[in-house]
Write a structure and sequence with these properties.
- This protein has 8 helices and 17 strands.
- By secondary structure, it is an alpha+beta fold.
- Strand 7 and strand 8 form a beta hairpin.
Length: about 375
């Protein structure tokens, strides 16, 4: 029987759907929660034959209505697991499909099929900055590219209010262009990149909004990376994309554990400055671990380390909350390193009270992200 190119694309897409338990491949979208881990405890069971057949029939019928070029773009995104750049997949937002006893919108159904089988509601999702539809509202069409979305992390318990002091104390200082002090690099103050004049260094578009340092255990590897663009990819190996490539850094650390963890960084993370704060999206196939003062109780002496699973996003830094952490008339506090403007991220291995490693300097591969207090 003669088979068209379209039918071939549909078959390849179905074979590339997100795995569930019993498919013979681990589902990186499922996870458990315990200790300091983030996210809900979920487990996706393999569909029964009847439900599997119904899902296949429904998915095929939807895909066959999509333009061939859109199918090719969707296949590229799905097969590369988001590693290759892919355009938006704009489809009608008000088309609903019934699967068993549940009714799903067209975008939600495609997200379930190709990324998260346990997904239940669109409120669990966050659109990524790379999507052309980011920040735009189109009542007729919506981007259905599953790799233009991420899952939202949820804190185990909501943090208390972050405004214990009068609002006058929460205003940012007048001198705001200098980047804060590193908590790990001996008190070095980071300034504007070399080669800029004084006038240029004070221009907002030329001032880095953060600086990233990459560490292997107690040794910093490579140069400090100043970030000026709104979004930065930090990765070890990525098919397409620019950013901070850790795989190109020369490291003298011969530790087998470091080498093993380096090889697992893969697509790494995406760091994005957005209107409500700085978001971290885990693009890799393994969890990352984050510690940030704006994620926890500001009065806590020990900050929790939060586990972020593959495909999930977390608002790792909140400028407004960080501002409220400045304690008025506290000379001792003002002399301390600006830990409230620093976020630490470890790949694969966690640290802190829930883990055998008590300090991030014991982790094989980790990042220190130091934000401007502007």
């Amino acid at each position: 029987m003669f088979r068209t190119k379209r039918s071939g694309l549909v078959r390849r897409l179905w074979r590339s759907r997100a795995p569930v338990d019993g498919d013979g491949e681990a589902n990186t979208g499922t996870h458990g929660s315990g200790g300091c881990c983030m996210g809900k405890s979920t487990k996706v069971s393999k569909s029964n034959p009847g439900m599997e057949a119904e899902l296949k029939s429904l998915t095929h019928s939807i895909l066959k209505k999509i333009k061939e070029k859109q199918l090719e773009a969707l296949l590229q995104a799905v097969e590369s697991k988001g590693g290759a750049r892919s355009p938006c997949l704009l489809l009608p937002s008000k088309v609903d499909s019934k699967l068993g006893q549940h009714t799903y919108s067209l975008p939600l159904l495609l997200y379930k099929v190709f990324r998260w089988p346990d997904l239940r509601h669109s409120s669990e999702l966050k659109r990524l900055y790379c999507c052309e539809s980011y920040g735009k509202i189109n009542p007729e069409l919506v981007c259905c590219n599953p790799h233009h979305m991420s899952r939202l992390c949820e804190l185990e318990s909501p943090p208390p209010p972050y405004s214990p002091y009068p609002m006058d104390f929460l205003k940012p200082p007048d001198s705001a262009d200098a980047l804060p002090t590193s908590t790990e690099t001996g008190g070095i103050n980071y300034s504007a990149p070399a080669g800029l004049s004084d006038s240029q260094s004070h221009q907002e578009e030329r001032t880095p909004w953060c600086v990233v340092a990459y560490w292997e255990e107690k040794t910093r590897v490579g140069r400090l990376y100043s970030v000026q663009e709104p979004s930065l990819d930090i990765f070890y190996d990525l098919p397409q994309g620019n950013g901070f490539c850790l795989g190109q850094l020369s490291s003298e650390n011969k530790s087998q554990l470091v080498e093993k963890v380096r090889s697992k960084i893969g697509y790494g993370i995406q760091l994005t400055r957005e209107q409500d704060g700085v978001w971290v999206y885990n693009r890799s196939s393994y969890p990352i671990f984050i510690k940030s003062a704006t994620l926890d109780n500001p009065d806590s002496r020990t900050l929790l380390v939060h586990k972020v699973f593959p495909g999930f996003s977390i608002k790792a830094f909140d400028y407004e909350k960080a501002g409220s952490l400045r304690r008025p008339n506290d000379h001792e506090f003002s002399q301390q390193p600006r830990t409230d403007f620093t976020v630490q991220i470890s790949f694969v291995k966690g640290w802190g009270q829930c883990y055998t490693r008590q300090f991030i300097s014991s982790c094989p591969c980790w990042l220190e992200v130091i934000f401007s207090n502007r």
